Amino acid sequence: MPITNTQIGKIGEEQAVRLLQSKGYGIVARNYEAPMGEIDIIAKRGEKLYFMEVKTSLDTHRDTFSPEERVDRRKRSRLQGLCETYLLRERVDLNAEWQIDVISVTLDKEGKLQHIEHIENAIWEQRGV
Predict the structure, then answer these.
(1) CA dist 24 → 10, 29, 99 (Å)
(2) DSSP secondary-structure letter at 73?
(3) 28: number of Cβ within 10 Å
(4) In terms of residue numbers, what domain contains 110?
(5) How far apart are CA 77 and CA 23, in angstroms?
(6) Would you say residue 128 lies in a domain?
(7) What sign does the CA torsion over 22, 25, 28, 31 have?
(8) Tens digit of pLDDT for each residue in 15-56?
């Protein structure tokens, strides 16, 4: 029975959480919902917040496009807005350090991890700091 897209995404996020925890990040929230969408993972290391966009694909699709290439200009803009919404809702200090990272996960057709890459500060927009 083939693995579903929902299962692919869930497995990818689990792998991303494991990677982050092994690198010393604390997980603040998962699947944080706001009116304009969802942030996959919010993590913290030291005093800095990290907003993680997890992109997962099957190895069979890796030659066509990499998961991180699916974060286009529109998606970057939406993520920026989602992060700002989180900061306002949670009353985070406006001078707090934060960034948006991408975690690219590739699975085989059974859902086993083939490759994982944490692309730090992958989405950078000039913020009025």
Answers:
(1) 21, 15, 16
(2) H
(3) 16
(4) 5-123
(5) 27
(6) no
(7) negative
(8) 999 999 999 999 999 999 998 899 999 999 999 999 999 999
Please state the domain count of the chain: 1
* DSSP states of 77-117: HHHHHHHHHHHHHTT--TT--EEEEEEEEEE-TTS-EEEEE
Task: Count the helix, strand and coil residues of the chain and give each as a percent rounded to the nearest 5.
Answer: 35, 40, 30
Whichever domain contains 58, its CATH number is 3.40.1350.10
What is the value of pTM for the model shown? 0.86
Structure-token pair, residue 28 = 């603040």
Domain membership of residue 78 (yes or no) is yes
Q: 């792998």: which residue's tokens? A: 15
d(CA 19, CA 52): 12
Q: Is residue 16 part of a domain?
A: yes
pLDDT computed for residue 42 by the predictor: 98
Two structure tokens written together for 55 = 């992109």
